[in-house]
Amino acid sequence: MLATINHNNQIIEIDLSKPIDISIPLTNTDENPIAWYIEKPSIEPVVFGDWIGKVSEGKSSTNFNNIFFNPHGHGTHTECLGHITNDFYSINQSLKQFFFTAKLITVEPEKIGDDLVITKNQIVNLLTEKTEAIIIRTLPNLLDKKSRKYSNTNPPYLSEDAAIFIRESEIKHLLIDLPSVDKEHDEGKLLAHKAFWNVKDTVNLNADARLNATITEMIYVPDEIENGNYILNLQIASFENDASPSKPILYKI
């Protein structure tokens, strides 16, 4: 089904019947990716005495599950600056528009000391036109990103200079296939988060902090998806929380 979008006075045509889902589903199996030293998610039926909320148990007409998970550590999620601020900010209040122009790029992080880092020069060389969102696919792009256990593995991350450049390019939405844009053990500096959101003081928030900008982490972009320009539909659940599990969808232009 073709749809014509008037986006910022630009007429764009997309095929809604061909969505490209770059989210990782949340499961209660060992295949679920995990970061930040937590256990896998729990999805279990509610139990009231002898009653079990599971049709296959023969004691309920409905499946009625509780789900326990952490959006930051258990899969694809979108976060606002409330992730790092003293005051409460909600992703549900920060993200009010859901379709954006987006550029998909592929980067092989550079070896710097003991780290693998996405540098400013790499982003500068690949981001050659204006866009509202950037999607960063890292190499090697192994399928085990969908089930990897990231805790204490020092994954690649985004340099502060790269995050500043992305912010100064007026990109509002940053998506990446890593558990964080920052180094795993960084003494709480969170340099890339702060640079992208333009947060200078997490206790007394500066007036020019980017309240409507978002970071989406732990996506997965298969190799067959070509670099280039897309329309991004950034879907979240309506959680009044700093982050929500999310489902970013791409459409070819």
Question: Can you characterise this structure?
Answer:
The protein is 11% helix and 32% strand. With 253 residues, it is mostly beta strands. The strands form five sheets. Strands 8-15-14-12-9-16-17 form a seven-stranded mixed beta barrel. Strands 10-11-13 form a three-stranded mixed β-sheet. Strands 1-2 form a two-stranded antiparallel sheet. Strand 1 (2-7) and strand 2 (10-15) form a beta hairpin. InterPro entries: KFase/CYL, KFase_sf. It comes from Flavobacterium branchiicola. This is Cyclase family protein. Its EC number is 3.5.-.-.
Helix content: 10-25%
Kindly state the mean pLDDT as a whole number? 96
Main structural class: mainly beta
Number of E strands: 17
Shape: globular
Can you list the strand order of the major beta sheet? 8-15-14-12-9-16-17
The main β sheet shows up as: 7 strands, mixed, barrel
Total helical segments: 4
**Gap between N and C termini:** 13 Å
Essential attributes:
253 residues, mainly beta, 7-stranded mixed β-barrel, 4 helices, 11% helix, KFase/CYL, hydrolase activity, hydrolase, KFase_sf, EC 3.5.-.-
